[in-house]
Amino acid sequence: MYGPYFDHEDNIWANYSNHFMVKDPGIAHSGLKLVYNVPEKLSRIGAVMTVYADGIKVFEKELTQAGTNEDVIDLSEASGEEEAYLEEARAQHKELLNEWIGFCGKHEIEYRLICGGDLGAYREGDFIPWDDDIDVCVRRSDFEKIRKLAPERSGSSDFELRGMTDCGAEDHAVLDIYILENGFDLIALHGLQTGLLTALYGLAMGHRPYFDEGDHAGGQAWKVPIIKLFMGAGKHVALGRITAAYERVSRMKKRPGKYCFFSNGYAGCLSMRFESKWFEKGRKARLGDIEVVLPGMIEAYLRRQYGEFEQLPPSWARRPGHFKPKERGEENDG
């Protein structure tokens, strides 16, 4: 439910959005019958109810009628699209991950699987069912090796290295390579470094055709207007100058120390520090039928990244992060 926020005595309308799961597979044919009550106050403020099924918008209605309302929603067009997307993405990611592991083995590059991939490998021994991307990290020295090798790989296979301002990757699988950079022990110096990187990140985003507030600001709403301000200025600065400055600031800490961080992560994640020892030794694990390498001290890393990582997220959050469903009536061009 979307509309101005206010509290209701039954806590029914206390959030911008409410989620529920319906597991009956027959509902795609029978439709979904909603019987709901609209408080008098809500009916006067222009609130709109939007219903999504499998990520597809199937119904939208302005809530102008107070009291009991009833609607039957046709779900036939929503059935299966998200599942088909995940099945295709999983096949592509297995192929890409095998390509990546072979590339690293051939060129003696050490990597660690991170984020959802290593959480799935550690907790389930397989891909998380709703995860739709792959994230790895490498040390700066290995990343520089990859950067030199990538052009020759691009000419002979599907492997391609892209920068943070590139886009248009919706038609193929993506593996994000995070650079594990030396971090400062003093929190003030770390804050200064990552603050400068956030500003440069915003300038670089000015050369990108779109901005996803949830992704690029790391879910931190207060950073959105700041990044947008820098985006406006960044359009007038050559991208080469911005990226050169970003590289210099990323490498401010010359020698390894107690801490490290991902220097090319989203702006909202730059300030997160990890202990270097968590990544020093790799830990082999299975991700389905693929053998991967996780951070050696995987529990410490996962706790820092996710908090209570052994608990599953709420059912409404178990959705692919990069799935962009078509709305009703939209033609499938591909």
Number of domains: 2
Enumerate the strands of the largest sheet in spatial order, edge to edge or round the barrel.
5-6-7-8-9
What is the beta-strand fraction? 15-25%
Q: Largest sheet, if any?
A: 5 strands, mixed
- Cα-atom Rg, whole angstroms? 23 Å
Low-confidence stretches: 1-14, 154-158
Count of individual helical segments: 11
Overall mean pLDDT score? Answer: 80
Measure the end-to-end span: 32 Å
| Principal-axes shape call | globular
The count of β-strands is 11
Order of helices and strands: HEHEEEHEHEHEHHHHEEHEEH
Secondary structural class? alpha+beta
What level of helicity do the residues show?
25-40%
Written account of the structure:
The chain is α+β, with helices and mostly antiparallel strands. The protein folds into two domains: 1-79, no CATH class; 82-312, no CATH class. Helices cover 36% and strands 19% of the residues. It has eleven helices and eleven strands. The protein has helices at 27-30, 40-43, 81-107, 115-123, 140-154, 187-205, 213-216, 223-234, 239-250, 277-280, 298-306, and strands spanning 32-38, 48-53, 56-62, 67-73, 112-114, 134-139, 175-183, 259-262, 274-275, 282-287, 290-295. The strands form four sheets. A five-stranded mixed sheet has the order 5-6-7-8-9. A hairpin with a 2-residue loop joins strand 2 and strand 3 (56-62). Helix 6 crosses helix 8 (223-234) and helix 6 (187-205) packs antiparallel against helix 9.
